[in-house]
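*** Residues and shapes ***
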Amino acid sequence: MSSFVRASKFRHVFCDPARPDSTFQNLRLSTVTGEQNYIKANPKYFAVGLQGGGGPFAVLPLDKPGRFEPEQPIVTGHSAAVLDFEFNPFHDQILASASEDQTVKVWGIPEAGLTENLTDPLVDLHGHSRKVTLLRFHPTASNVLASVSSDQSVKLWDIEKGCEMNSQNDAHPQLIQDIVWDYRGNTYATSSKDKNVRLFDARSATVSTTIETPHEGAKSIKMTFLGPLENLVTVGFTRQSQRQFKIWDPRNPSKELKRVDVDQAAGVIMPFYDEDTQLLYLAGKGDGNVRYYEVVNENPFCFPIAEHRSSVSAKGMAWVPKRGLDVMACESARLLKLTSNSVEPLKFHVPRKSEAFQDDIFPDTASPEAAHTADEWLAGSDKPKKLMSLNPAMSGSQGISAPKEFQAVKSPAVLQQELDTANARIKQLEERLVAAGLSVE
């Protein structure tokens, strides 16, 4: 019998259980439910919805764990519950929020974090006729945001101009459950309650491919593209409520490349794909387990690595980008696990004895610099992500431009308010001139 063991740098990846002093506690979380992950993160912050009027949510720095106190500053500018958040991948201080009040708002977080309640957004986007449920920023173009609503539409926005770029209104007969971008941002995929997965040309908002009934179960289908490999993973259920995932080639959607039956459980699985290590992480809502697989671009297409088990169930999960990891400790991935009242960091490590930077497990990763502008992308520009080294020794020598100051175009309401203020000031000055016996002509 062969004793062949497949060689892999990531065969021994393990997860460090969260220590009490590294968790964020005492969070009075919003009770709203939906298709969202309930928590989002970037290299500096994470955002979670809170209880209270006006759709409040907290934006907390990752490096300051501890108890969340009721008097801490929050973001509270919506008129109804916030359902999803999304951090701008090219500006760590910018995030968007989606709400039951049918709006999308874009917020600017001060460099030092929140020191007082934030109530005035940088941009207020109106266009959906029902609650906005999901948000996804474009992976390569600056300031392009996709939003999904219960009105069964998908809209693309240029958040800097504060305008709608295009809208897909007629492809989904039922509610949209998920939306993901491909690696370059030319295509986005949606899953729907009608059990179909659709791929769209993002610039024209037209259907390019349909995967009919990838999973026969009635629960939500979640997805992720496999980075430059260009394949698509769908995660769903069988008719017997068994959880499974499938790998698809979008160019040949008639038959999956791979099917893996995971287990028998009720919670929807949230997939996260690490483009740098080619590891696929599957985290279940309602259970405490995280399974991870190594993905390859040939048969058998994936290999199981290991599983992190916990008795504490997860309400949601967020992926922390590579720029936020401790690479010198060989931390290859980090998930933020949202429980009923806390956030626990799950840190995945590759065991190495050397204290030097490990360039074989940390290849160049996505940089915080966009490959093109929104207008360039819409005009047809097709570029991959700009990359950067994670080696601390190269910090500051990679020619990465600092994110330019976000300049949102003022809305008509803001412009009218400024005009009214200016006119009132002009009238006041004219009255002073007349009172002094001077002509105003």
